[in-house]
Predict the 3D structure of the following.
Amino acid sequence: MPENRYVHGYSPRESERLSDQAETLTALLHNDTRYPAGSQVLEAGCGIGAQTVILAKNSPGALITSLDISEESLKCAGEKIRQQGITNVTFRQGDIFRLPFAPGSFDHIYVCFVLEHLTEPGCALEQLRPLLKEGGTITVIEGDHGSTFFHPENEDARRAVKCLVQLQQQMGGNALIGRELFPLLSGAGYQDVHVSPRMVYVDASRQSLVEGFTKLTFTAMVEGVGPEVAKQGLMDADTWNRGIAALYRTAEPDGVFCYTFFKATARK
Amino acid sequence: MPENRYVHGYSPRESERLSDQAETLTALLHNDTRYPAGSQVLEAGCGIGAQTVILAKNSPGALITSLDISEESLKCAGEKIRQQGITNVTFRQGDIFRLPFAPGSFDHIYVCFVLEHLTEPGCALEQLRPLLKEGGTITVIEGDHGSTFFHPENEDARRAVKCLVQLQQQMGGNALIGRELFPLLSGAGYQDVHVSPRMVYVDASRQSLVEGFTKLTFTAMVEGVGPEVAKQGLMDADTWNRGIAALYRTAEPDGVFCYTFFKATARK
């Protein structure tokens, strides 16, 4: 993995977007992950701690170690944790491919929105496996931008989303990784792999998702790569702007927006 | 609606496909629809009765009237019902746009895999609404071919699926209608519209879906329009064959297949 490269960047607006996203999606993605008191949990790739807060609150008795490669992100995550008065998280700087832990250190591993950014996600999963105690579990959550569809249908909007996929690919990532969790975990030697798709379905009867997901999470994320798309000439400005407008259009009263996350669990 | 035109045709293999589909998807799509004993239920567009059987079995005390435009389909549906010893279904030939019923005739209306074939689905929903008693409900189930994604990703397979969408469009239908149920029902004046997406997620740990859905339902459906695709020259034979092979490829042990149905309920 190229160090410190992250398709969405590290701007304050991006930090805000990640927190909006985490709040909107908490129930859908995280609320069925609860670790027992006293269990050792590794969060591999905690970023700015958007998920760390949820993880720690849902499992207040667990002892969580949150690892990230970026010192800057860790600083941000640490601040977030302190602000919330959370005390069961320890931060550790390190590379997911050169893990600074002894084999069998953890009861559970939690990996959320990380594999999509790695060139060799299967290899990362293989590296993580020995860190689990016998019978320990891994939980992986990823999105899949190719699962996106909406009404009204719009070709420019589709192309804009594809640009994001393309940029993430250029950086060695895979924005379509959600659908691959089953073969990735199976291929890395995990047992009892179970994948649960979690669709975010948004229509006008779900206003908090219209704001919190369609606009503030997804469309803001696509919009955020606009400068890079322009720089690389992936789409001309007019078509790009029409695409972004068409994505916002799906948040109107007769619009619909669908996106699917995948949550996988497996045993060592 | 052009009469008696149906994108998938009326062959025996198609009948078999529809029954395979109905069995595999029963739990996912139908098991939460139960009508009280004595209630009057209209199934608008019953086709060959694949859903009629499920509907009648799940609501054995309801009085079901199943309407279809095709006499041939009705004959087939009637036979199916008799074979199963079901006695709470009455068949009626008729057009969904010239409904042969008095206003307020029904407590509930059930419309499954029908709107996708209509040029004016919103108009059909408007026509159906007066048939409901006050407070009566409508339930609509539709697929959405644009919700399809799979692993391994394959451009030819995508194009093959798009051909099916295109053919259905040529015949006045809309294979992407699932995502539109909320605006369609709201626009037709229904209240309390609630849409529930139902994703069929298939990986190697779910063998009955690998066979029953990925292969026998979805890929067989796409394959079935091959002759028409060839006739119209929408795709050359080699690319088409590669596309179909790539769809079957998603049924291999490391493959994944996703498709989403939408189930909507609303009140008059």
Chain B has a mean pLDDT of 93.
